[in-house]
Amino acid sequence: MIKRLVPLLLLAAFFFFSRPVHAYIDPATTSYLIQIVSALVITLGVSFGLFFNRIRVFFMNGRIKLAQAWIRITRPDQVKKTRVSRTRQDQESPLDKASFLWSDQRSYGRRLALAGLLLASLSLSLWVFGPLEILAGNPNEFAFPFTALLPGLLLGAALSLLLALPLALTKGRVFDGLLSLGLGLLLASYIQASFLNRGLGKLTGDAIAWEGLLPDMLVNQLIWGLVLLLPLAIRLLSRRGWTFLVKFLPALLLAVQIISGLVLLAREPALVKTVSQSYLSNQGLYQVAREDNILVFILDRLDNRYIDGVLARHPGYLDGLDGFTRFTNNSSRYSQTFPSITDMLTGQPYYFEGASGDYMKKAWKESSFIPGLLDQGYQSRLYLTSCQAYGDARDLEGLTLNLARGKIKAGQGALGEFVRLSLYRSGPLALKPFFWTSTDRFDKLVTSQQSPPPYRMDDPAFYRGLQDQGLTLSEDRKAFTFIHLQGPHAPYNMDDKGQEVEIGQSSSLLQTMGSFHILFDYFDRLKALDLYQDATIIITGDHGARSSDTRPPEAAMATGLFVKPAGQAGSPLVINPAPVSSDNFQASIYQAAGLDASAYGPGYFDVSPHEFVVRLVYHRLYASDSGPARLLTYQIVGDANDFDDWILIEEKELK
Question: What is the pTM of this model?
Answer without folding.
Answer: 0.79
